[in-house]
Structures are given as C-alpha cells and as structure tokens.
Amino acid sequence: MSTDANISPRKLFLNQLKERGEDCHAADKDRMAVVHDEAAENDPVFEFSEEFTIDVGETIKRWECETDYTVTNTRPNAHAGAFVSFQVTASETK
C-alpha cells in the first residue's frame, strides 16, 4: 500500500493535473494546468507539467471561464533538485 509520503512530488503533481487540470492556451499551444486561484498576491498561479518559453506580458487564456491573463512571473518548481512543474503567475487582463 502506498501513501503520499512514498510518492515523489512530481508524481503527486501529475496526479493533480490528471484529476483537476484545466485547459489553457499559453505560448501558442493548448496545455493543461493546475490553476491555484489567488495564490500569489491575489493572482492565480498556473502550474504546467513542462517548462516552455513564455515572457512577462504575454497572454494565457483560461478556457473554463473564458478569461485572459497577463503573465507577471515565471519559475520552475523543483523539489530536492528534481523538476516538479513550471509555475506561471498571471493577473487578469482588464
């Protein structure tokens, strides 16, 4: 029997992505992301399974609520030196 303590952070993230991932459009491609609403100073953090090039000021489209967000920060998320996810913070485009 396995517990969360026995599963790597990457595997836990991929399970989250499978269970509650949302369709988004970022960097000219449709991608799945776990969206943490109001996670960073009231802005959502989009967590993707792979790292990709996206610049501050570019747009992410969240299909579920048909809302556009402007990228304000990007960073890889690692645990013990191993890549877990790619996090993009964005604010709602007004």
Task: Give a written overview of the molecule.
The protein is mainly beta. It contains 1 helix and 6 strands, in the order αββββββ. The protein is globular and about 45 Å long. The N and C termini lie far apart (48 Å). The model has no long low-confidence stretch (mean pLDDT 92).
Percent strand equals over 45%
Order of the strands making up the biggest sheet: 1-2-3-6-5-4
**What's the helix-strand series?**
HEEEEEE
How far apart, in Å, are the first and last alpha carbons? 48 Å
Instruction: Give the biggest beta sheet.
Output: 6 strands, antiparallel, barrel
How many helices? 1
Mean pLDDT: 92
The number of strands is 6
Q: Low-confidence parts, pLDDT < 50 over ≥5 residues?
A: none
Structural class: mainly beta
Binned, the helix content reads: 10-25%
C-alpha Rg, in Å? 13 Å
Q: Choose one word for the global shape.
A: globular
